[in-house]
Design a protein that fits this description.
By secondary structure, the chain is an all-alpha fold. It contains six helices and no strands. About 30% of the residues are buried. It comes from Mycobacterium rhizamassiliense.
Length: about 100
């Protein structure tokens, strides 16, 4: 699991620069993060599904880099896929984030 976090750890500083939304739910936090990084998505339900699926894949021991590659396969750049993955971990599966900030 540490390899997942190592893959995403580089983005933790980037994610901390995103202004927080007080008392927002995890989906709102996730979508706000994507918007603040100018990541476009056509369908809100689909992009949320991408994030929650990533968490399921990580919990099922899929290596982080492979999970990010799957997101890239959906038409996102490497940078966008990394932001989507980091935002998903922070919003939907914070238990997977063992990175001590």
């Amino acid at each position: 699991m540490k390899s997942v976090l190592a893959s995403l750890a580089a983005l933790s500083g980037l994610m901390c620069a995103v202004p927080g939304v007080a008392h927002a739910d995890s989906t709102s936090d996730y979508l706000t993060t994507l918007s603040s990084h100018h990541i476009s998505y056509g369908n809100q339900d689909k992009i949320v599904h991408i994030g929650t699926t990533l968490c399921q894949e990580l919990r099922n021991s899929l290596p982080g880099p492979e999970a990010v590659q799957r997101i890239q396969g959906l038409g996102y750049t490497s940078s966008q896929a990394n932001v989507i993955a980091a935002a998903a971990v922070l919003a939907f599966c914070p238990d997977m984030n063992n990175d001590p900030l």
